[in-house]
Design a protein that fits this description.
75 residues; mainly alpha; 3 helices; single chain
Length: 75
């Protein structure tokens, strides 16, 4: 959606970055409390997805390229 709505992406970047950081912290704490391996993998996957979002909204070429590589390696 970033190429489709570049002005909205720029406008909502601080909000999305804040939500991603909060979600990373919350998911990591929730992941530490789990005992089931499937839940641990699922929670860490959500954390990785938030790191990808941070890279995409970093407005830096290295961040965008890094998040694309992270998407590929995560899959």
């Amino acid at each position: 959606m970033i190429p489709l709505f570049p002005e909205a992406s720029i406008y909502f970047t601080p909000f999305i970055i804040t939500l991603s950081i909060i979600a990373i912290i919350y998911i990591n704490i929730a992941c530490l409390a789990q005992l089931d391996m499937k839940k641990i993998i699922a929670y860490s996957s959500i954390g990785h997805t938030n790191i990808i979002v941070l890279g995409l909204f970093s407005a830096d070429l290295n961040g965008i390229i890094g998040s694309v590589y992270f998407k590929i390696s995560h899959g």
